[in-house]
Design goal:
The protein has 55 residues and is mainly α. It has 1 helix and no strands. It is rod-shaped. Keywords: Coiled coil, Membrane, Transmembrane, Transmembrane helix.
């Protein structure tokens, strides 16, 4: 009788929670970075508008 090796299957299915977690963290980091860039862009635009009003 042949023995069945489930090691590769267990490793494959065991890795998916880690892959999902890493992808989640990556997306979260990108969203935070995008929000920071948008805030900086808003600040720049406000300063430009104030400078135009002064002139």
């Amino acid at each position: 009788m042949e023995t069945i090796d489930y090691t590769t299957g267990m490793l494959w299915y065991g890795m998916w929670p880690l892959v999902i977690w890493v992808a989640y963290k990556f997306v979260l980091m990108n969203v935070e970075h995008l929000e920071d860039n948008l805030e900086e862009e808003e600040d720049k635009n406000e300063k430009k508008e104030e400078a135009l009003k002064v002139k």
